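Handout, section 4.2: multi-component inputs.
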Amino acid sequence: MLEATNLGCVRGDRRLFKGVNFSLTPGTFLQLQGPNGSGKTSLLRIICGLLAQAEGEIQWQGANISSLGDEYFTAVTYVGHRNGVKDELSALENLRVSNALNGIEITEAKARAVLKTMGLAGRESLPARFLSEGQRRRVALARLIVCNTTLWLLDEVLTSLDRAAIALVRSLIDEHLSNGGMAIVATHQELELSAVSSLLLELAT
Amino acid sequence: MLRWIVWRDLILAWRRRADVLSTLFFFVIVVSLFPLGIGPETQLLRSIAPGVVWVAALLASMLSLGRLFANDYQDGTLEQLLLTPQPLYFIVLGKVLAQWLVAEIPLVLIAPLLGVQFDLSKETLLVLFVSLLLGTPVLSLIGSIGAALTVGLRGSGVLISLLVLPLYIPVLIFGAGAVDASIMGLNPQPNLSLLGAVTVLSLIFAPWATSAALRISLE
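Output:
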């Protein structure tokens, strides 16, 4: 369970938001909305621990995330604006290295199968710099299939994806939620998930 | 885990060979300019050799340090590295180790060859080699702190130099001192021991400082 109480964020000398409260139980989906610059990315980065909040507290399974340290990261997968895909490595290498660093070593056959699911069959061995923006995003999202984490934090992941890929991401999130996972997604689009409990958090400027 | 991060950075370096070679050529050219500029005065060349080679090594390491975290920062892999369940200390250590293997080891290997231009004896060339082998890890380790502090900033190259070069002074003194001692027929071991001590200390503390700096830079 993830619980945020009275979160506030200040960037530079500008206050982005304050008094943000929510709590996520297994199987819950939280959609973040708000105009550009309202702090969606900052909120996600605070939740994954990359950014320190100005005030408030985030608790994961009852413990403050700053005291959990590396243990918290075994439960979290974050896909941000920047894909985290190395241009010089192939899709296959990107997937295998990023998972290995998260403690999950997968075989080449398994990685190929995952990339095929993501619609990248035949492109596995190309250096990522030859892939289109949407394809690179697919490589980044392929981590979601392997990662085996409880909390997904997805920041505008649908940009530059085509319709088929959006449907794929939707089904991935649906499956994740039905397995008791949680997801926080910042997006302007309607995801139309079949999730039983979904929340909407609207940040204002 | 250390294995994966080192493997990853070595593959990346191999696929961007030009970057590595430019550092090496910079080192070779800078060291070779001195004998050409000064002329065949063997006594003078011999006495400036330790300082010239070591200063060139410090400057060459500046060229590669800017890339240590900058590329990972730009494509978002750096924030992913921070979010792995591995201690950041070991990730930094892995990256620094890869950087040392790629950027510093070639300089260490070619330095004895360049030393011949300065009319150094066989024993002195060996001391030069050993001092660089012992001292260059410090350049990578301390340099990584500067690279982490300036990641994401514009014009970070100059800033790294200003931050890091003063911290290199002990390495320069002990490293060049060892070679100097050997030229004058003295025992280079005290200098080499001190150099080794600096290496061990920075091996313990630098990755820790770099980790903290990375967390600050990525906020």
